[in-house]
Fold each of these.
Amino acid sequence: MVKEKNWQARLQRAAGHTLVVIGFGVMLLPLLLVIWLSFFSNSILALPPTGYTLDWYRALRGQETFLNGFLNSLSIALIATVIGLAVSVPASLAIVRGNFPGRRFVLQLLTAPLTVPAIVIGAALYVSFIAIEIATSLPLAGARSGLAAAHVLLTIPWCIRLITANLEGVDLSVEHAAQSLGASPLVTLFTITLPAIWPGIVAAALFGFVVSFGNLEVSLFLVSPGETTLPIAILQYLEWKIDPMIAAVSVVQTAVIALGLLITDRFVPLTRVV
Amino acid sequence: MATIDIQNLVKTYGDFRAVDDLSLSVAEGEFLVLLGPSGCGKTTTLKMLAGFIEATSGRIDIGGRNVTQMPPHERNLGVVFQNYALFPHLSVFENVAFPLRRRKVAAAEIARQVKASLGLVQMEHLSARLPRELSGGQQQRVAIARALSFRPDVLLLDEPLSNLDAKLRLEVRQQIRHLQKNTGITTVMVTHDQDEAMSVADRLVVMKAGVVQQVGSSQEIYKRPANDFVASFIGSVNFIEGRVDGGQFLAQQGVALAGAHLPAATRRIVVRPEAIRISEAAAPQPGELAATVREIVYLGAHSEVVVEVVPGLELTVRLQNGSGESLSNRLQEGQPVALLIGQDAVFALAD
């Protein structure tokens, strides 16, 4: 009886471990594969490789489309994240702490872009921007401001979700305590509430940045010809040829994001953030 | 130090009257406890004192200032919360220094006052810790130090012991009482625990459904409860229905009890379980009642014995469990006993 139980427990543990290994495999394998591919010397991707080389990384330096795309993506993502936070922090405070009718509706509205397919958002924005351009002659479609505005739309739902979740975890009595101890509502916000939800704000910034940086569908409609983002540059390159250069670009892109995560982790442990 | 004056305070949520026309005064240096079951309006009252919620109508004066419309940060009150409410990202020292920093106290003076306040609750040695590194009892002591560090006019305690385990509760309770006596600060505490309330209060306010039922010292409220609710909320009681007849109280079941002092219109009396004397005599003496033991519940320091006087009239009697052969050990279920219910143990209740 005892033996059988032991055996069962061992089987369960083994099954658990297998699931974990499979899970990690599914997550990491594509990434490892891309890293491996980026060192292939054949100019058409094929298995097995004929040899290995660093040429694709060297060649990257000469590829201005990728470099420009990277810089464009970076600046758009930074702008979208900053504006997204600037909107989401006050909005979250109003939604969680405020007491006005329609709070739920505002929350739904701000997180709605998450439920609409990005390609639909892109198309809809493109049409609207054109309509606005015709009516007001403000250049939006194909302008940087229009693209940034669209990306703000992508970052807001993530920021709102993460910050409201964090804010709900902050006990109201902590804020009451601060007020009773002599802190005005504004001082309470800056000395107590914001520090308490700081991990949520960092997480929101991270998610917002990554979502914007990697976005293809919305950007596709809104970039101007000379100012593509990195995902679009990769897509355009893929239309002509499939060589390990693509893998090399992806590795660099992944490395940049990973570096960003590591630096963030130095200031706010990521295990506490998400 | 200050007095508190509450006049006709009302708080409604829609049709629900959470606090219904409450008027109270708290004397300087007094320890007042608001006591009642959950939903009786005691916490709502405290929150209105602190300014966390706005009164629907009425007026609150603290230290002669009308604070009814004043925001909490201008009221100069120390508040201690059930869940401690320490600032999680600040050290113990910074938590206690927080109110002093808001008051722009000089750094050297802050260090001195924080040290003194933490000393009051024996927490000086942990001033560098973060709240999450402390036990519940330690956190609550830091919260008390924080609420006292800036010498507030009034100390408000909202169920400060409810989250602590039984042993700590006793310890922190004594500490609160001593601190209050030593500092002489006017204090209002909210609790649903009658032992806790009676042990610390100078004066108790028993509340039910937003309305004050009785105000008085622990003794007054225990010995002379104003109504059924107060009588049963504070300690256990035996209620007996009947009427006054010829200098006696005649129970519905036909048993006569001593009651010469009762008002003629009395329809209901209260007898505390510890006020009934029980003896093993098979035949009752004059003035005693014959009864039969129905149930004995051992509760450590005392036992509760349920006796039946006549069918339909059962009384609970409390017996102290002394060392060695005590009466409660000898009593058997079904055994005949004699009860002595003294006149001073019986009192009348208004409905």
Amino acid sequence: MMLGPVVGGACAKWAGSAAAAFDFGAAMILACPLLLGDSIGFRLMSPSWRECPPLMQPPLTAH
Amino acid sequence: MRNRWGILAVLFAVRATMAFQFQSVAAVAPLLSSELGVSIADIGVLIGLYFAPGVALALPGGAVGQRFGDKATVLGALLLMLAGSVAMAFAASWSIQIAGRLVAGVGGVILSVQLTKMLTDWFAGKEIATATAIFVNSWPAGVAISLLLMPLIGTAYGVGAVHLSVAAFSGCAIVLLAIAYRSPADAAVASTTSLRLDRHAAGLIWGLFNVGFAVIFSFGPSLLVERGWSIAAARSAISIVLWLAVVSVPLGGFVADRTKRPELVLVAGCILLAVLMVALPRSSSVVSIVVALGLISGQPAGPIMSLPARVPRPGTRAIGMGLFFTVFTPA
């Protein structure tokens, strides 16, 4: 919440309209699912994740 | 208290104290300016200082919580908030006002990190998205109470009384937490959904979402004024988003828990919200889009805030929450 309004304001000033700040805000919102997808994709591509997901690991002792 | 919804009510009230304290300066800005002889720019600095410690102290705050325990850490954070307010109440100089605000901000950062961790301990693997969505609403609730009460107190008794009343709220939160909160017998383990995410990504997603959401309130009135609306009408129209978000935030969490697809609610909500934000400056159906913004904008909040809960080991949560807030704060 520190940088966002500053950058949004700079966009609006540069374009001469508050609409530019809205476009900037929309881009930030759209980045959320992209970041989520990227993070999930990264984990699924990781060999350790693919071979043995942490939640499915067997107990270390089989007693 | 053993009921997790009762615990949620306690955590909600304690977190609202932080929002109450944050907003107290802005709520009496004109009074503060005239009493201390400072400019509105100085007041802006004083407001922003509250979050400044978050960048550096969120992560150590999580470590402190892990070292000393949840309850003791939150009580310590509330004491810092109380001390900061008392210092500001009796400060004659501007530098002590700043020091008091920073001390209160340090307490607020630790409080924020630790309360989120405590909520996760109680709700992870259960109704985590619903609980976090309700928990998130404690911020606007605290701000609203502050906006309602602080100008009345400030006008009647002066700025010192405003800070003392904030200190009194912090004191009440200390008593409430000390009496009503206890840690769960066994901290809940992670959600059983397939999605796991590191805290950097979760913090960044929450930060980016808040940036986009803040644009609506920061620039929405200006946008409508550019299009010929009066200032009062523009502010009223944009405030509809906030009022509807109070309902749509918990609703989004509830839908995420019921469907067990929080990631779907997150993705769909964000895409729809972005489309509406692009449409608002370009459409003549302003009121319809503003209403739709209010209904959609709250949907992803609960699912996003529940992302950091997706860590299997409760022992690492305090540090993880600190990492989450370290990444979120600068955004």
